[in-house]
Amino acid sequence: PALAWDAMLKMTGVKIELFTDISMHDFIEKAKRGDIAIACKHYFKANNPKTGKTFDPSKPTTWISYVDANNLYGWAMSQYLPIGNYKWEVSHKYLEDNRNEQKKYLEKILNTKTDAKREYFLKINAHFPLKTHEYLSDLPPAVENMAINKNILSPHTTELVDSLDSGCFLATEKLVPHL
């Protein structure tokens, strides 16, 4: 991606304005996304008439579907990117105190065309009730850039790290799906 980025800058001649507000810079750094690869379900058994002898009509009918998306980098690199005139739209404190304004801004953002000249980065504080965690655990609806420290690893992963890393474990920023 770095070579393609440099080639794009050279070929288009675009000038990207630098951030002058450190909190805005930090906000955008936190909003950056990359790819995420996870195995959601380790085992799943289909139960439908096409499974032959293993089909059990007394159980719910289930199917397995493999879904993939192609050319995600190519698509993303052909979309509009912010290059300047950065500004905060409205403060979160103002929106917290004005529910009607929240609805107004949400409508404005949701109705933004995909090829609009002005687009938005959103920070959303989401809470998922404990009763939904089991249902959402295989594919959490939100991801977060966070440093993976040894103290948040599972016991099995910690054991693997201890046996394989030769004391070289470094906390690394990853895109993590979690609740």
Could you explain the architecture of this structure?
With 179 residues, the protein is mainly alpha-helical. The protein has three domains: 1-87, no CATH class; 89-125, no CATH class; 128-179, no CATH class. The protein is 33% helix and 7% strand. It has seven helices and two strands, in the order ααααααβαβ. The chain has a two-stranded antiparallel ribbon with strand order 1-2. The protein is extended, with a radius of gyration of 22 Å. The model has no long low-confidence stretch (mean pLDDT 85). This is 8933_t:CDS:1. InterPro entries: DNA/RNA_pol_sf.
List keywords for this structure.
3 domains; 2 strands
Structural class based on helices, strands and sheet pairing: mainly alpha
**Whole-angstrom Rg:** 22 Å
Shape: extended
Strand content: 5-15%
**For the terminal residues, how far apart are their CA atoms?**
30 Å
Give the domain tally.
3
Order of secondary-structure elements: HHHHHHEHE
Query: Which strand order does the major sheet show?
Result: 1-2
Mean pLDDT: 85
Largest sheet: 2 strands, antiparallel
Q: Count every beta strand, where a strand is a DSSP E run of 2 or more residues.
A: 2
Number of helices: 7
Protein name: 8933_t:CDS:1
Offer a concise description of the structure.
The chain is mainly α.
